[in-house]
Each structure stands twice: as C-alpha cells, then as structure tokens.
Amino acid sequence: MLLTVVVPAFNEQEAIPIFYKEITKEAEVLKNSRKDLDIEIVFVDDGSKDDSLNVIKSLRKEDRRVRFVSFSRNFGKESALFAGLEHARGDLIVTMDADLQDPPSLLPEMLGAILDEGYDSAATRRVTRKGEPPIRSFFARCFYRIINKMSNTEIVDGARDYRIMTKKMADSILSMKEYNRFTKGIYGWIGFRTKWLEYENIERVAGESKWSFWKLFKYAIDGIVGFSTAPLSIATYFGIFMAFVAFLLIVFIIVKKLVFGDPTSGWSSLVCILLMLSGIQMFCIGIVGQYLSKTYLETKRRPIYIAKLTSDEGEDE
Ligand code: UDP
Ligand code: MG
C-alpha cells in the first residue's frame, strides 16, 4: 500500500527541510504499525521565487520517495493541490501544508479512519484560531455563516486542507475541472463519508503566511460565487420590495394632494432616495458582473496550472 503526501509549497525554502524531516520520522512510526505501508512525497512548487525548488531537488537526489512538480508561475494553492492529486500514485493520498501547521502526528489516526473504520476520508478542522489577528477571525466566522446560509453545499468552518482520502475520492476531485477552484466547496460537493478530527491551531515553523487580508477577501468571494447563485436573486427581491414601497408612496401622495392641495417640498428626500436606489442598482450589477466574469474565465477552458518541470522528466539536471 502506498501513501502519497501532497505538499503545496510557495516560497517555503526554510520550512521544506523541517517538514521533510518530520514527515519521514512519522513514516517510520507508521511503518511500525502497518508493515505494508510505503510513502511518497509529492512537492508542488507553486512558482516559488526563493530557493524552494533547489531544496526539493536536493531532497530528491537523496531520497527517491520524493517527487515534485514545479509550476511556471504562482498559480495559487488550489491549483497546487490539483496538480499534486494528479501526480499522486498512491492508494491513499494526504494533502498537507509545508509549514507544519498540519501536524504529522495526526496521521496514524487519520489513516486508521480509512483503513479500520471504513471512512472514505478523514479531514481536520481547527477549533481555535489562536495566533491569528482577531479581525481576521471575525471576518472568517462571518464568511462561513453567510456561505452556509446561501449554499446547498456544506462548507465546514475551520476546515483545513489537511485531509486524507482514498484514490477514488481524489479521482472525483480531479474530475471537477473548474478553473475557479474553491477546494472546501469541492470537498463538500462530491460527498463521501468523512471523519472530522479536531485540533488546536498551531503556528507555522518558518516563513510567513501567504494570505493577505485582500487575498482572503477575494477567496471568500470566489467561494460564494462558486457554490451559490443566491446573490443573483438579490436584485429581484430588492426590485419587488422597492416597487411595493413606491406603490404605497403613490397612494399616500395622491391622498395628500386630494386632501391638502399640493405644497412643493421634499427636494432633499428625493435626492437621498435617488442616491440610495442607484447605489442598490450598481451593487446588483456588480453581483451579476462577478458571475459573468467567472463564467467568462470558465468558458476559456484554460489549464488549471502549467508545469515547467516535474521530477519524472528533470532527472538529468
Ligand atoms: N501555498 C501555495 N501557493 C500559494 C500560497 C500558499 O502553494 O499561492 C502553500 C504554502 O506554501 C503552504 C500552504 O499553501 O504550504 C498554506 O499556506 P499558508 O501557510 O501561507 O496559509 P495559512 O496556513 O496561513 O492558511
Ligand atoms: Mg500555514
């Protein structure tokens, strides 16, 4: 039995050697309890600008269990995970971060969930957001609340990308070829039986997080647009509501004119209403625009990533 460890890495030159040491140590531990288990490690170099690729290459020289895919530029973690799953040869596949925020010590338990308990997948979620700016945690919580209201697909709060799955499940993820990838939604969408393990947040061993607030915001929008069409109906509801209010106002004004005559007033309230309505209109057009832009990108059918080099072809260097 082969276990593939898929590791997306973007500018992780300091973290990769530490990660490698930890994961091989854990592999030894695993081998003690399951004799027939071998591992391979697939690093996906997501267009790193630092020395990550060379670090991976030198690991590959010493240890043939290490394989890699190197992208022509930074395509983002979602694309890196896709490439990793594509190149995995194992019967079981685990995806984990290079920064050791996904503790390898959970592996025996995750493996057990599939091999002994018959789950298709074991995933992890963190129950605390310690070491994260409070404002970021706040927005993250809001995001999960909103998206789960709007989408039929269940998207789990605090779910990490640290997950072990069967080959079959990995193949169904690969069958979803969408260009705008929101992995958390994809896992929810394909189904399968998943065991959830909880653990406390751990800070990364080296380097720093690649997520800026703006990047996270865009990621949240991608998630909503990708797995819900509810925002598209907002314009309809606003429209119906506004028409109703307008009708009441018309009745009110007619009655007022009949009873009191017609004193001309209300210029400022008119301007306020006008501004508010055009604001709402712009907002709704913006929503339609979001969906249109995603549709536009999907119809181009661009590849999810472009590999510059893989370990299978780059041996002569
Ligand atoms: N990562 C990647 N491409 C990117 C950004 C991140 O492959 O464009 C990798 C990164 O190297 C790490 C993992 O994704 O292994 C998680 O990134 P990070 O630790 O920055 O995210 P966080 O843990 O803060 O959510
Ligand atoms: Mg991290």
Portion in helices: 40-55%
Shape: elongated
Low-confidence stretches: none
Q: Give the beta-strand count.
A: 8
Tell me the name of the CATH homologous superfamily of the largest domain: Spore Coat Polysaccharide Biosynthesis Protein SpsA, Chain A
Assigned CATH class of the largest domain: Alpha Beta
Distance between the termini: 30 Å
The set of bound ligands, ions and cofactors reads: uridine-5'-diphosphate, magnesium ion
Radius of gyration: 25 Å
Mean of all residue-level pLDDT scores:
86
What spatial order of strands do you see in the largest sheet?
7-5-6-4-1-2-3-8
* Content of β-strand: 15-25%
Largest sheet: 8 strands, mixed
Number of helices: 10
Give me the strand/helix succession: EHEHEHEHEHEHHEHHHE
* Total separate domains: 2
Structural class assignment:
alpha/beta
What is the name of the CATH architecture of the largest domain?
Answer: Alpha-Beta Complex
CATH topology group of the largest domain: Spore Coat Polysaccharide Biosynthesis Protein SpsA, Chain A
